[in-house]
Amino acid sequence: MKTIKRMLSKRENFQGNAKGFSILEVVIAMGVFSVGILGMATLQTRSINNNVLAETAQGNIVAAMELTEAFLAMDYTDQHILNDGTVPFTAADKTYTGTITAVNNSAIPNAKLVTVVSQFTPRGGRPQSVTLRCFKPFVK
Rounded to the nearest 10 degrees, how much is the dihedral formed by the CA atoms of 64, 121, 100, 87? Predict the structure, then answer.
């Protein structure tokens, strides 16, 4: 019983000397907390920008693939394929520009090498491009 009283008296003495947080500790804690919040905000902003860039790049790749497939679906005697040359294109929303080139390929007889180059410039960034190459064979 005496030990419990002694422990309680020591506890009361300890609590009696406690005064709480100092203003300096609060200011330092708020500084650390605000730096963490600013870091999270920066991370979120960069994440959103990278997602927009990835979406634009994906749209550019899909546009180039669709143009390549449309070009391959044309008849070999079509004017665009028959004459060696370059055909420029621009997307309806003017997001993508590029060229389609069909040239004779000496490595494969009766085939044309079709090259589609699609370019886009992300907001505030440097121009980027996608190049797709395939062969258009002459089929009788």
Answer: 130
